[in-house]
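Board notes (copied after class):
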Amino acid sequence: MDALIPIGDVAARFDLPMSTLHYWERCGLITPHRRHRWRYYDRDQLYRIALIRLWRETAQMTIEQIATILAGRTAAHDWRETVLDQLDAIDVRLAELRQAKDYLSHLLDCPLDDSLETCQAFRKLVAVPRASSE
C-alpha cells in the first residue's frame, strides 16, 4: 500500500483549505482512509484531488458535474453528456472573452483618447438593449 498522507499535508500540498477536502468527501468525490478519526490520503486519492481541482479551476465545472464524470456511465446519465455540455459552455465563454478583448483593444487604439464615449466605431460594437415596450 502507498504511504498515507495526513489531511493537513494534503491541504497544504494543493493549497486548499481542509474544509474543502471535507466537503468533497461529503459529496462523495473523495474517500480518505481513516485512522483514529484522522483522514489520510493515498496516491490514488491525491490524483483524484488533482483532477477535481483542475476541473474546478480550469474547466470551471460544478461539484455536480465532477461527480457525474467520476461516477462514469450510469443508468441515469452518461458522463459524456456532461463533458459535451461543458465544452459548449466554454465555447460561449471564449466568444465572450474574444469580444471583450476586441472592445478593449479598440479602446487602446481609438484616436478619441479623451472622449471614448463618442467614438462612433466603438458605439457600433456596443449593444444597447431595447425597452420591452419597443
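Comment from the instructor: The helical segments are 7-14, 18-26, 43-57, 63-71, 79-109, 120-125. The radius of gyration is 23 Å.
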